[in-house]
Design goal:
single chain, 2 helices, mainly alpha
C-alpha cells in the first residue's frame, strides 16, 4: 500500500468517526444548527473522498459505483478492515 493510499484511508476513517459522533450528538440535540452544518460538510467531504478512493484504488463497499456491469473490482485489493 502506498503512502497516499494509507493517508486517504486514514482520512476516511477519521471522517467516518466524526460522522458517527455527530449522529449520536444530533440524536439528542436536534436543533443545534452548528452541529447540523458540520455534519453536512463532513458528509460531503466523506462522500467525495470515498468516491475518489474507490475510483483510484478499489471499492470500499460492494455497491460502490466503481463496480460496474463490465468490471467487478470488489475483493481485488485489500479489504477496508485489513488496513
Amino acid at each position: 500500500m502506498s503512502d497516499e493510499q494509507a493517508a486517504m484511508m486514514l482520512r476516511l476513517q477519521q471522517l467516518g468517526l466524526v460522522l458517527d459522533d455527530l449522529r449520536i450528538y444530533l440524536d439528542t440535540h436536534l436543533t443545534d444548527s452548528a452541529a447540523i452544518e458540520r455534519f453536512n460538510a463532513t458528509a460531503e467531504e466523506y462522500k467525495a473522498m470515498h468516491e475518489q478512493y474507490s475510483k483510484k484504488y478499489s471499492p470500499l463497499r460492494q455497491d460502490d459505483p466503481s463496480n460496474s456491469e463490465n468490471k467487478w473490482d470488489w475483493g481485488t485489493s485489500d479489504f477496508p478492515w485489513d488496513f
